[in-house]
Specification:
Elements lengths: L2 E6 L6 E6 L2 E7 H6 L10 H26 L4 H10 L4 H13 L5 H14 L5 H9 L5 H10 L4 H12 L7 H10 L4 H8 L12
Antiparallel strand pairs: 1-2, 2-3
Helix pairs in contact: 2-4, 3-4, 5-7, 6-7, 8-10, 9-10
Length: 207
């Protein structure tokens, strides 16, 4: 087996496209070229070739995970699920996640803080619902608690904001509005203070 091409990528600086026996393998970095002793025309043993294939496979998943986590903040669980769907081996998955954490590309504290900030400014939620949504991302409960408490998140303030946003939509339908606010995780007593007691309509008897 012989290396027949080492070509720099035009749109991915620092990456080089590699071919062996005129068959494309994938990308390696400049550091890996020196680390693995790669050179155009150089023959390789089966052991070296196997090591190279494993490294290229790792790189494919690493580059994909980096792009995935760069588009918006992701949790470790989300990246792990993404890599699993791409067929990445578990040991490579764990190594990639660890590296992305070291580089700050995965930062679960920033993710939780951003989620809380959005809840404060865009769509107010109860602290209970906010914690539940963050738990679906499998974040550390300590990180969730810290992010919510750090901003002094107040359910009554969030409820007031949500009532202002939605009251026109539910005009004349206080019972539906009440149920909607309950589904957002706010306390019954707090909702009563905000919009009054519910006036649930009785359903007509079934004949």
């Amino acid at each position: 087996m012989k290396i027949t091409a080492i070509a720099p990528s035009h749109n991915r600086p620092g990456r080089y496209w590699l071919s062996v026996d005129n068959k494309p393998l994938g990308y390696v970095t400049a550091e890996e070229i020196f680390e693995l002793g790669l050179a155009l025309g150089r023959a390789m043993t089966k052991q070296t070739y196997s090591k190279l294939v494993n490294r290229i496979t790792y790189n494919q998943h690493y580059f994909a995970a980096t792009a995935y986590a760069d588009r918006r903040l992701r949790s470790k669980a989300e990246v792990k699920h993404y890599l699993r769907r791409r067929g990445c081996a578990l040991d490579n998955t764990n190594a990639i996640i660890q590296k992305l954490e070291q580089l700050g590309i995965i930062d679960e504290t920033k993710l939780a803080d951003a989620f809380v900030h959005d809840a404060l400014t865009l769509k107010p939620l109860s602290s209970r619902m906010l914690a539940l949504k963050l738990k679906t991302k499998q974040l550390d409960p300590k990180v969730i608690k810290q992010s919510i408490s750090a901003v002094g998140y107040d359910d009554n303030t969030a409820l007031e904001q949500l009532v202002r946003q939605k009251q026109a939509r539910y005009a004349g339908e206080q019972d539906r509005f009440f149920r909607y606010l309950l589904r957002q995780g706010f306390a019954y007593s707090d909702i009563v203070k905000a919009i009054g007691k519910p006036e649930f309509r009785r359903r007509p008897p079934v004949r």
